Amino acid sequence: MTANIPTLAVYVDYQKVYDKVWHKGLVVKLNRMGIPLGLLKLIISWLNDRRAYVIFGENKSKIFYTHIGLPQGSSLSPYLFIVYHSDLVTCLGAFSSHIFADDLNVLIFPPICRGVKSIIKFLEEEGTKICNKIAYDSKKWKQSVNFSKTIVQVFHSQVQSSVVDIYMEGKKLEVVKEFKYLGLAWTNKMSLKPTIDKTLENIQGTFSKLRWMKRETIPGFTVLICIGWFQLSYDIINQTQAQ
């Protein structure tokens, strides 16, 4: 973006990954990390022989053994979940990536010394290649990708957005101009305007609820100060982006 070069972002969505952690695959990864044998045996014992049953209305299924998923409510489960996905970024090569819980984001940036058409072609080829690697890795470790919610976005400062065609296992991914990631709504111009506008809307809504609850009007001066403060933050962010 700083060099006015399009950057491709791929947001990968997984299907219930917490409930689909493969026990045998987890043990393999823990062993690769060099975890002490005694601790590894303890974790294996903790995961083994877990049983469950399904209740639907007044019907109850037979008890069956489970070989996937981490126990809900356990303090150990989140750590094992992180370990299970810690090597995911290694299949992505040199491109920037970020994983938080079950959300994976990959940024693909082309070489600077290329024309726009060559850059778009590079993004399409590398984007599709990376998506296929992710799909292969997810199948290998039994973590299903939700293709309908896996999104592509192109960050570029041009007035007209670049159009790219990215595929994952032959399925074309949706390209969006705005996407909410980790609580922030990003536009393809790298603007936070949607997030700021939503924040201002929530503040105004909160003041309306307070007025209704107290059955009295909040001093207009207080409202103006709060709205003015957020408006100032909005202007500062816009000026920073413009620079």
TrEMBL record:
Organism of origin: Rotaria magnacalcarata
Domain of life: Eukaryota
Pfam families, alphabetized: RVT_1
Protein's recorded name: Reverse transcriptase domain-containing protein
Entries under SUPFAM superfamilies matching the protein: DNA/RNA polymerases
Ranges for domain Reverse transcriptase: 1-186
InterPro entries documented for this protein: DNA/RNA_pol_sf, RdDP_mobile_element, RT_dom
